[in-house]
Amino acid sequence: MTSLVNRVVHWKQPRTQTPAQTAVAMDLCEICGLKPKYFEGGFKHPYCSRSCARNGQGPNPSVCILRGCRATGKAAFSNFCSEAHAREGVRLGQVEGCRQCNIQPRVVGEHCLSCDRQIRSTPRLRELDVNGATYKNLRAQFLSEWESPRASPGIEKVYEVIPPRDARARYDAYRGSPINPQEIRTFHSAQCICDLGFKNSALCSFKSCGICSIVKSAFRTFAFGASSNSGRFGEGVYSYRNPALADRFATSCTSSPYRVMIACDALVHPGQISEEQSVFVPVADAILPAYVIMYTKHRVEGM
Questions:
Q1: How far apart are CA 284 and CA 237, in angstroms?
Q2: Which residue intervals of the chain bear CATH 3.90.228.10?
Q3: How far apart are the first and last CA of the chain?
Q4: What is the pTM (predicted TM-score) of this model?
Q5: Of 223, 285, 284, 283, which is closest to residue 252 (Cα–Cα)?
Q6: Distance of alpha carbon 157 from alpha carbon 32, whole angstroms
Q7: pLDDT: is 199 or 250 the higher one?
Q8: Does domain 124-299 fall into CATH 3.90.228.10?
């Protein structure tokens, strides 16, 4: 009988990996090797958190890329050793600055980490130049589409809405869906209880402000936390081709002399388009705030 000893299968013990090698293999943080790398909007950071990014050097440390500095560079500061040296690198033109703040180096596309995070989560307003082509085209469209025998509008200011990237991504995904919708310009208005466009261009945080709630959420939240409009087609979002019809819902209770309306990009079936009735979309992904218009109304003579 073969001895039990001869039947033992000999195996070779695997080579022990370093923590850094194990972390890379398992897609874990390159510093602590315990938590998954932070994933944000399609970009995977090498670390699990800001703490590890600030405190660790990674498996292959390198010198700060600011000329003359011999400290260790850190990925959290775009391979500079500190935030101060990262700013100095931008000031000296050694690296390109963030397109938005132009203070910190570019890390994600054309933006620094801080601005990229803000762009992904928060909409911004940018006032249009009254002499620019975009302003003139929107003004002409607004005035030509306005059909009312009682009043005529006058545009005072226009702000372009720069939506968060996730809102834009949802809209683009809906536009590319099999239903093949058509994009049209519509207008939507609601109660505005802040001085938006009068004293400043900051979006307020009042839950009762319909305009700011809509712009900040890209039509996912309305005044008082409502998740949709109610109308003849049920729950969804209602807007109008004729801004005079949307004007019926433009109310204000502030010191601002302006009425406020949102110009929207809406994705609809061609059969839904109507000049006199409301344009309905069933989900917020199918409509996006494009511009915020500050305007006044003038009574037509003889009326």
A1: 7
A2: 124-299
A3: 116
A4: 0.66
A5: 223
A6: 52
A7: 250
A8: yes
Tell me the two tokens of residue 212: 């700011």
Residue 22's pLDDT band (boundaries 50, 70, 90)?
A: very low
* Residue length of the chain: 303
> Residue 275 has which token pair?
């000049």
- 163's tokens: 């939506």
What is the residue whose two structure tokens read 């890329």? 65
pLDDT digits (tens, 9 = 90+) for 31-75: 666 678 777 656 677 777 777 766 655 555 688 999 989 898 887
Strand order in the sheet with 151-162: 124-127, 151-162, 287-299, 259-268, 182-188
Please give the biggest Cα pair distance in the chain: 119
Hey, what amino acid is at 182? Q
Q: Which residues contact 115 (CB under 8 A, 6 or more apart)?
A: 98, 99, 100, 101, 104
Q: Name the CA radius of gyration of the chain, rounded.
A: 28
Cβ contacts of residue 204 below 8 Å, gap of 6+?
Answer: 193, 194, 196, 212
What crossing angle do the helices spanning 165-175 and 113-121 adopt, rounded to 10°? 50
- Does 123 score more than 80 pLDDT? yes
Contact 129, 98 (CB under 8 A): no
Predicted confidence band of residue 24 (pLDDT cuts 50, 70, 90): very low
Helices (H) and strands (E) in the chain, counts: 8, 10
Supply the mean pLDDT for the chain.
83
Q: Give the model's confidence band at 5: pLDDT under 50 very low, under 70 low, under 90 confident, else very high.
A: very low
State how far the Cα of 33 lies from the Cα of 273, in Å rounded to an integer: 56
Token readout for 279 is 């344009």
